[in-house]
Structure formats: C-alpha cells, structure tokens
Automatic annotation (TrEMBL):
Coiled coil: none
Family: Belongs to the homogentisate dioxygenase family.
Biological process annotations from GO: L-phenylalanine catabolic process; L-tyrosine catabolic process
Species whose genome carries this gene: Staphylotrichum tortipilum
Protein name: homogentisate 1,2-dioxygenase
Domain Homogentisate 1,2-dioxygenase C-terminal: 283-431
Top-level enzyme category: oxidoreductase
Residues reported in the UniProt entry to bind Fe cation: 330, 336
C-alpha cells in the first residue's frame, strides 16, 4: 500500500507528473511571461539555465530548466580536491554470484561521507555506465553545505529512515518504500529528521530515466505518470558571510569542494523539464499472469534507461496455473543487482537475503531459487496466493557487466561466503528416464 502522504503545506508541496513541463514560483510574478531570459528578470533575480540533455536532443527527450535566483551558481571561489572522501580506484569484474548481509547503519556520517560505492562500470568522463552505492548516514549535513554529482543522476532507494532533501528547486521528503531521483548537477543537502538512514543508490552516467513503454498493456498501469512528484520552488534569502558555504561536487568519482558567500538554495522560481522528483513504490500498479507462466521481471519495471532499469517486486497476487511460480533457473545477458527494502523476498526462503542486504548476479552468472524454495514451489497447491505482503524487493537490471569495489568485496565485511553452498549446491537430481 502507498506510504501515507504526510505533508506540511508550507514546506512540502508537489507538482504531479513524470517529465511534465512544470513551472513554480515562491513569489508571484517571478517567472517572466514569454521570454526565458529577459534583460532584467523580475524582483532583481538572475536567470540561469540548467540543461540535462544536449540542446539539440529530440523534443521528446529534451530536458532543460530555467531558474530565477538571487545569485548565479558561478559565484564561488575555485574548486579544491576534497581529501575527506575515498573514491574507489578500481572495480573487479567477476562472475561470482554475490550476496551481502545487511549493511551497517552509521551513526556518525552525514550524507556526503556516508556514500560507499559498492560497484560500477564505465566512466562518467565518457558518460557511459553506472555506479551503485550503499548509503548509511546518522547525522544531517552541516547547515551551510551542499552536494551535487556532475557524474550522473542519483536514483535513491530509501531502506531505513527519512531523507529531508532540500534541493535548489525545492524540498522533497523521502521515506522507506519511496524513491527519489536527483538529476546530474542539481545541488541539494540532506537532513535526517528521524535519525539514521540507510539505502541504495543507482547512479546513471548516461541519459535519464524514462517510464517504460506500455505496449499492449495500454494507457495505464505499472508506474503511472501522475504519481511522480516534483518539488515546488522554495528559497532562502538570508545573507551569509563570505566563504561560509561549502559546495561539494562529485566529479569523475572524486569529490571537489568550493566555498562561496551565498546559499545555493536561492531559486525563487523555475520552469522546465529537468528537476528532481520522488515516487511512492506503493502506488505501483502491478501486472502479471492470469493464466500460466512466470512473466519476465520486466513486467515490474518502474523506470527504464538503456544502462539500467529499476524494477520492483511489490506485494501481488499469484494465480498462475500449472506454473512454477518463482523465477525458474536462469542465466541472463543482463546483470541483476537486488536489494530488499523490507519484509521477505518471495523467491528466496532460506533467510539469507535480508532487508538492507543485497545480491549481485552478474552477466551470465547462473542463479535461481534456493533448494528449499524449489522444493516448496514444485509441490505448492496452486491456489491464488498473495506474496510479498509487507515486502519490497527491487532490482537494478543492467546489460553491463558490473564490477565490484574493494569496499563491496572486503571492506564492508558483508559478503556471504556460503552463498552457493547454501543456495544451489543442495539441489538434488529428480531425473527419471521414462520406462
Ligand atoms: Fe535473476
């Protein structure tokens, strides 16, 4: 079921619609009429363009936003390499099936310092590939700090706690069972109003998410466009001392910082198609078989991109007849990184895949139900059954071969060495030659 939509009118108001053209102003008459870049914008503001695609991208893909702000983003001192953040130096491309115990909470780190890269492939320098992070933070970011990634779009899956995200374009409150997407370059800061947070991030180095095509499904279903929520303009007009703000930028995996004497959260109005948004996974309208056969997991795609799709396994009814209801054994050209927000994932009953843990089945690495699940599903009474009640598993499914960082393999100390031995080695022969 959807997360109850707690809102406080003055801080969290949302504009509904996926990649719809939005316009919002915190003070009347901020947005110019007709012109985007008038000689003198209203209220003494500066006009600034934020582009998320090439100017010449096809109209259906073109994402650009105009912001009207108190001071331009360029008004900062030079960037310096920031030494307080460790970027991985390499990733290991290995065929080994991997499963991780729940990742630790961290009471001390803030958002910026609580980002741990678990895996990745490609490079932000050529805008190819992706990165996967685990985040765990216990304190809000300092009041006068902001962060952005020039490397790619962050898709944030909250597993624990609440993120109060102040972005240049407004505020987003993101709770477990919700996701947020913060596009490349958008500055934000993260407060933790309900204590420690933990979750998963998929960073896309290339392009942006779209809603999947619905084809024969028709005009509604899966994630409906109207359920995506963008923030309304909100700004801070306080004056700050020179150099009192620190703005971090993730750039080719490394962090750089620059100081400035004004807040980046000074956008009084904006209009366009390039903005952060959130989505409540409980609003996903699940589709599935009503006759036989386990559908491919693409039927559960929330957001799509050529480098990775975001797929969920929400509570749903299984009614298929003469059907092995979990996924049969498979080897895919796609790599599958899975996480669990809450509850139990219905295709694994052995208890090894737990909330806040993860698994990675890389390109062509064989996997499927563990031996227990196989036995149960092969003998199940195929009556209508609700699975995944109180659960939300998800997958970042990518055609790319995902490398794993040293943090993911060793430093985090969560890899389960007995994954193969526990899951599939116990499978027994059932073959009988016909007489
Ligand atoms: Fe799979």
């Amino acid at each position: 079921m959807p997360v109850t939509n707690f809102t406080t009118p003055e801080k969290y108001q949302y504009l509904n619609g996926f990649q719809s053209y939005h316009e919002t102003e915190a003070i009347p008459d901020t947005l110019p009429i007709g012109a985007n870049s008038p000689q003198k914008p209203n209220h003494g503001l500066y006009a600034e363009k934020l582009s998320g695609t090439a100017f010449t991208a096809p109209r259906s893909e073109n994402l650009q936003t105009w912001v009207y702000r108190i001071l331009p983003s360029a008004a900062h001192l030079p960037f310096e390499k920031y030494s307080g953040y460790e970027a991985p130096t390499t990733v290991h491309q290995i065929p080994q099936q991997l499963r991780w115990d729940p990742f630790d909470l961290d009471e001390k780190a803030d958002w910026v310092h609580g980002l741990k890269q678990l895996g990745g492939v490609g490079s932000p320098t050529t805008k190819t590939g992706l990165a996967i992070f685990i985040f765990a933070a216990g304190v809000s970011m300092p009041a006068q700090q902001a962060f952005s990634s020039a490397d790619g779009d962050f898709l944030v899956v909250v597993q624990h706690g609440v993120l109060d995200i102040q972005t240049e374009l407004g505020n987003l409150l993101v709770r477990p069972n919700e996701i947020a997407v913060i596009p490349r370059g958008i500055k934000y800061r993260v407060d933790l109003p309900a204590g420690p947070v933990r979750g998963y991030i998929l960073e896309l180095f290339s392009g942006h998410f779209k809603l999947p095509e619905l084809g024969p499904i028709g005009s509604n279903g899966l994630a409906n466009a109207r359920d995506f929520q963008a923030p309304v303009a909100a700004f801070d007009d306080k004056e700050y001392a020179p150099g009192s703000w620190i703005v971090f930028t993730k750039y080719d995996g490394h962090l750089f910082s620059a100081t400035q004497g004004h807040t980046p959260f000074d956008v009084v109005g904006w209009h366009g198609l390039y903005y952060p948004y959130k989505y409540d996974l409980g609003r996903f309208n699940t589709m599935g078989t009503t006759s036989f056969d386990h559908p491919d997991p693409s039927i559960y795609t929330v957001l799509a991109n050529p480098s990775a799709d975001f797929v969920i396994f929400p509570p749903r009814w299984l009614v298929g007849e003469d059907t092995f209801r979990p996924p049969w054994y498979h080897r895919n050209t796609m790599s599958e990184f899975m996480g669990l927000v809450m509850g139990e994932y219905d295709a694994k009953s052995g208890g090894g895949f737990r909330a806040a843990g993860a698994s990675l089945h890389n390109v062509m690495s064989a996997h499927g139900p563990d031996a227990d699940t196989h036995t149960k599903a092969s003998n199940a009474d195929l009556v209508p059954t609700k699975v995944g009640e109180g659960s939300m598993a998800f997958m970042f499914e990518s055609p790319l071969m995902i490398g794993v960082t040293d943090w993911g393999l060793e430093t985090c100390r969560k890899v389960q060495p007995e994954y193969n031995a526990d899951s599939w080695v116990p499978l027994k022969r059932h073959f009988r030659r016909p007489e």
